């Protein structure tokens, strides 16, 4: 181009991409290579952390046991969706009792988040002169006072083996909660922890394991992971590196999810989902930046204090969040349209929103907030304030200025 002003700023502006990426293994039956992956790092004793169902399902746990072979120290199959600190303390004790030098986090987002808590508590207990119970009590106090946990410089290494599509595996963050019933706190609290040290050292995405997950569980997790790719493209922290991985990841994800929604269970579907999941997560959780923003913040607001599953909340709110985004800013709609195969549409914004809704509908997820156990309209002002206070809102496009009224309008449209 002769006119420098005609060059899009995204092409010319400088960027910095700092990322200590985990090793990624992706392929059918790659769980059989877990022992190999641990050996490459000099790790010898792995504690597998999972939920009870995953830990007792032979089609899931047996390939992991076989892959670890002599490096399997034990299985802690006690994680729950609540991600409670008391569960993590029990897991940390298993790390100590078994003298485990690493954790294999097997399952969905809850188990992966719990594994990060276990890693932190086990490391803090190992470094302290106090009785471990004192260390766990101190962690409960810290969570209640600050909403997070201090992460030691050295933690127990984590290898993630996901079985759902929530996209929590290539991440340095996770949720944490505590209740009086579990000890450590006087009243129920929730929060999160995030540190580069908690990024798994390796992620093994075995398409054969995804295929063992019940259809409804996989579908419910899918929108959460899919929206990670959507948000990565319009985030203020996007880079050419994350653009490339998100565009390709969304294309694979979309193909796989639409086929899955059509009832196709051929191996290529799960292969596409495994690859798409890894690619949309690449670089979204970095030491100095993150790419999750509006949709994830809305989902957090909708599920805080309510039993609605995160993926369900994503499915309901994502199209309306995109409408709001495109009403106020460009939102890189052309790049999104290209990623979702609708680049030829006359109205890129409308085509993107429709494409996202089509994925949601193919998965059979709810389309209206009134149809799930979430907040009622009289709660929308409080939900809007929670959304605006969410840390991910820092990553919305620089020229978007969200307001309480605007967020309430999104919630009303989703109702």
Characterization of the model:
- The chain is of the alpha/beta class and 415 residues long.
- The protein is built from 17 helices and 10 strands.
- The protein has a 6-stranded parallel β-sheet with strand order 1-8-5-4-2-3, sandwiched between helices. A two-stranded antiparallel sheet has the order 6-7.
- Helix 9 runs antiparallel to helix 10.
- This is Iron-containing alcohol dehydrogenase family protein.
- One of its GO terms (molecular function) is alcohol dehydrogenase (NAD+) activity.
- Keywords: Oxidoreductase.
- Residues 23-206 form the Alcohol dehydrogenase iron-type/glycerol dehydrogenase GldA domain.
- Residues 219-415 form the Fe-containing alcohol dehydrogenase-like C-terminal domain.
Blueprint (SSEs and pairs):
Layout: H1 9-12, E1 23-26, H2 34-40, E2 46-51, H3 52-55, H4 58-68, E3 72-79, H5 85-98, E4 102-107, H6 109-127, H7 132-146, E5 158-162, E6 173-178, E7 189-194, E8 202-205, H8 207-210, H9 215-234, H10 240-261, H11 267-281, E9 285-286, E10 289-290, H12 294-303, H13 310-328, H14 333-339, H15 348-362, H16 380-389, H17 404-414
Parallel strand pairs: 1-8, 2-3, 2-4, 4-5, 5-8
Antiparallel strand pairs: 6-7, 9-10
GO molecular function, one term: alcohol dehydrogenase (NAD+) activity
Pfam family, one: ADH_Fe_C
Keywords: Oxidoreductase
Write a short abstract of this structure.
The protein has 415 residues and is of the alpha/beta class. The chain has 17 helices and ten strands.
